[in-house]
Amino acid sequence: MLSKNLQITPEILFSFCLINNKKFLVLKKKTFTIFLLIPDIIYILKKDNQLILNCSNSNILQKKIIETQFNSFYLFLQSQLKKLKKPVIKCLLFKGLGLKINALTDKFIDLKLGYSHNIKINIPKNIKVTRIKNFLLIEGINAALVGNFADFIKKKRLPDLYKGKGIFYKNETIKLKLIKKN
Description:
By secondary structure, the protein is α+β, with helices and mostly antiparallel strands. It has helices at residues 63-85, 143-154; strands at 2-7, 13-19, 22-29, 32-37, 42-47, 50-55, 88-95, 99-104, 108-113, 119-122, 127-132, 135-140, 166-169. A hairpin with a 2-residue loop joins strand 3 (22-29) and strand 4.
């Protein structure tokens, strides 16, 4: 019988649920939620702030396969907990006279980017967006989703290479081009 313990910090809430006769582990921290499908051979017990993973391998012939599946699920669960503890953050800077964040709600962002109309962008689930003056902080647990959403916003107004206006990442610098004079 295989058994391992995982310590979980108090700010992470966890529970179990059944969906279509499949066992799921739900990990939740503030606005971020992760659903994990638990394999049939693994049993999870909840004890205080610990998850105890158990696996009974009755079949001797498949012992190696069951051990590798158990260990891979344990490592996967550890990586998901690390994501919840330290989410990915991207910071966008709005630089220029006509660039402004008009409104920000849980569902969409309203941006004024120097065009004749305002641009509304829907915020995906599991992404939290906050505004600090002319900065936009995008945070989430999925690095690819956060990066793609930040790039999507940035492409709405790419930086101008002559004037230095546009949407930048926080530490991004560009070399301005010289204007030709006659």
